[in-house]
Amino acid sequence: MNHILFHVPHASLKIPKLYWNICTKDTNYITNINIELCDYLTDKLLPDNCHKLIFKYSRLFCDVEKFKDDSKEIMSKKGMGVVYTKDYDNVVIAIPIKCHKTKVIKSYYDKHHSKLNKTVTEMIKKHNKCIIIDFHSYSDTMVKKMFNATNNPDICIGVDTFYTDDKIIELTVEHFKKNGYSVEINKPYSGTMIPNKFLNKRNKKLQSIMLEINKRCYLNTKEDYYKFKNCVNDYYKKIQKL
User: Fold this and answer.
1) Label partner for 161 (CA 20 to 30 A): which of 55, 188, 202, 222?
2) What is the pLDDT of residue 85?
3) pLDDT value at 1 more than 80
4) Could you tell me the pTM of the whole model?
């Protein structure tokens, strides 16, 4: 295990029976929304030998990138907090039941974050540093619905000035541009995953950067897929040297 950790929170389509108990829409509707929201195949783009933490369930059921405290999570007001009760069209898809959310947090959310905290802590202890690559994908259609954003880049780099230093940003921008991809920083998404153990506690041994890959980069053709997979593999080799 080296000091690089790929965090992949939204690649799964798996929805436990627990979520179906609160759904207000039929199976076809939920399935379509689930596919639309999924960061499909992002887990398959990763280098074979990398260390990774992949959440096994759909973000509809449990979104581990959201704050579990609704007062801290801006998307909870739109029904898209830890448990999604609305889709991006503001359509109600599930009943917001407090006991359901409590169970999801205890049985799924907290366990994932506990593992993330433990993994990062062990990496820092062993290597005296850890770089988290928070790995996502997005579609132009989705960000148009969410932010009315157009002319979106191939690669959105999410940074946090507290946890992402200039060297990582420069390396990331340069690498993807050299491979022919357009790049923006914190547009249309911003920020990156910070384990809750380290949140608001400056630790120079921990760095984090988010990669939001426009799905057109790898889902249109098989050629696009393998070209981008190779690009990610080369990026991994470069960032290991930091």
Assistant:
1) 55
2) 97
3) no
4) 0.96
**To 5 degrees, how large is the angle CA 32–CA 55–CA 241?**
120
Measured CA to CA, the distance from residue 60 to residue 221 in angstroms comes to 27
Helix runs in 38-181, H state only = 98-104, 110-127, 140-147, 166-178
Q: Return the structure tokens found at 112.
A: 């994932």
Q: What angle do CA 225, 4, 202 make, to 5 degrees?
A: 125
What is the 3-class SS of 22-71, one letter each residue? CECCCHHHHHHHHHHHCCCCHHHHCCCCCEEEECCCCCCCCCCCCCCCCC
- Judge contact between 192 and 209, C-beta under 8 A: yes
- Tokens coding 194: 């910070």
Q: How far is CA 181 from the centre of its chain?
A: 20
The CB-side HSE value for 36 (13 A sphere, CA atoms) comes to 15
Identify which of 186, 31, 16, 26 has the alpha carbon closest to the alpha carbon of residue 108.
16
Q: Give tens-digit pLDDT for 50-80.
A: 999 999 999 999 999 999 999 999 999 999 9
